[in-house]
Amino acid sequence: MTATVGTSRWQGVSEALNTRWHKAALLAYMIVVLAHWAEHITQAVQIYVLGWPVAEANGAVGLAFPWLVRSEWLHYGYAIGMMVAFIILRHGFVGRSNTWWRTAMWIQIWHHFEHLLLLLQALTGAHLLGEAKPTSIAQLIIPRVELHLFYNTIVFVPMVMAMVYHMRPKPEELASMRCSCGTRRREPAGASPA
Questions:
Q1: Residues 85, 32: Cα–Cα separation, whole Å
Q2: What's the CA gap between 92 and 178, in Å, rounded?
Q3: Distance between CA 84 and CA 106 in Å, rounded?
Q4: 49-71, pLDDT tens digit by residue?
Q5: Residue 160 in 3-state DSSP?
Q6: What is the pLDDT of residues 78-135, one digit of tens each?
Q7: How many CA atoms within 13 Å lie on the side-chain side of 35?
Q8: How far apart are CA 154 and CA 160, in angstroms?
Q9: What is the secondary structure of 161-186 as a DSSP string?
């Protein structure tokens, strides 16, 4: 009986996150994503503008807490948190926005597995293909800093497209939405506001 109550409670929270709390959840999610972007951009500036060695370019948080930024747990925690949020919030998207959201979600699921691989290597000390440090599959081709800028971009672009289409739905999409995100209807051409 307790499992049923827990499942029921979780379904209620999931339902609320995709209906009445959807806009607030997406705003909170976007704030976290933008803060993460700020970290990666800061790191890129430290490397490519200021000329810092990659090992010392740890973003803004890394200036205060270098040990934290070097922890695979931090990166894995963010990757799994992003993946879980994509999965939970997907039910609020319909039509074009749903296609873009699911595209971003599947890319993030792959990105999560890359971070899981890095975490497992850090925990076991057994590195992929005998590399000196934990290495993801894509990192065999692209250096880690550039790879994460790439991953963040290919997740961010479809996520933003999904949110734009979600907030500006076509009439047929608006009719099937269960949240209030797209309630701002466009005025027909030539119509004057009341």
A1: 11
A2: 7
A3: 11
A4: 999 999 999 999 999 999 998 89
A5: helix
A6: 999 999 999 999 999 999 999 999 999 999 999 999 999 999 999 999 999 989 999 9
A7: 9
A8: 10
A9: HHHHHHHS--HHHHHH--SSTT--PP
